[in-house]
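Sorry to interrupt, but I need a hand with the structure work. Could you write out one complete protein record for me, on any chain you like? Just paste the record in under my message, thanks.

. . .
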Amino acid sequence: MNIPVIIIGGGPAGAATALQLLHYGYECIILEASSSPKRKPGETIPPQALSLFKKSGIEEMLRHPEHLACYGNRFVWGNATPADKSFFQNPVAQGWHLNRATFEAQLANRVIAAGGHYLHGCTLLTTKFLNREWTVTYTTADKQVRSVTAAFIVDATGRKSRVARKLGIQRKVVDQLAGVTAFVTLPYNIQQFTYLEAVESGWWYAAPLTEFQLVLSLMTDTDLIPKSLRTASDLLSNANATTLIAPIIENSIASEPGLVVTSAATGYLQQRTGDRWLAVGDAAYAYDPISSYGITSALEGGYYAGHAIVACLRGNQDALPAYDWAISNVFSTYMKMLIGQYAQEKRWAEAAFWSRRN
């Protein structure tokens, strides 16, 4: 098979890139490793993300009933007094708690409806660039080995940066943040806010997934995860020592016994573009979830990546450097915000988690 663009990774960044390519009439194929969209902790996107959804032509996805409205942030950060940051005074009066599995399925269906090829269960084997053409070999969901040639390749493999690493490009990690997550069943409704609480070992995140289900995460560095934290019930027990989170989870139970541990480290590729390739989303720059910028970054990066690839294939030699400049500027702004956010919390200045950030 010969195709203009091959995208390795079918998450939000890869799908958003594909949608822009298809908009301009460029055929593409997505190779996604998972066999189907998986249940993930979800993500809260802020009100200002709506303009990006409109620009990308996917605004109606937010109307799906499994994406809940979010009316603001409730937090304990910098002192022991809970505070609210409501979205009601914004031009857009709400954000959204996304159901990640539903959202990624929506994006995949949109890519297919637009004429793209979206293949689940594919494992990348090799990449080779010769005579200005990429040849990619991969295994399909039924373990068959296939190959495809393309004029351009996109690394949308998240923090693993599989394509870039095959090219010998190193990834720089700024910290070792990880999320220890459980899904919790509640006996009652809670207000549709995002809940954040700083503690000595890191910070807690909680957000509703459905009317009676909550995602609960302890965000800390990988070496600071308590060894006693082995089950969802353990996580609930730890959360009972908090001020803001404990009342929310009172009388709740773990929906599943196991914990999900995922990297949430800030990091980036030391080179994000090259000869007929680029990285997008977390593969290029990965953000701390305290920024609420993960999904927005993926969609925005995919939007600009699609435009840059089209311009590159049409002979514009400045397209990829311009794309890299744009996403690098966003990351620089984010780093200043991140430093400022963590600097607000001084109660445990000598504790390992906070001293590493301040």
Observations:
- DSSP finds nine helices and 22 strands in the chain.
- The longest helix spans residues 319-343.
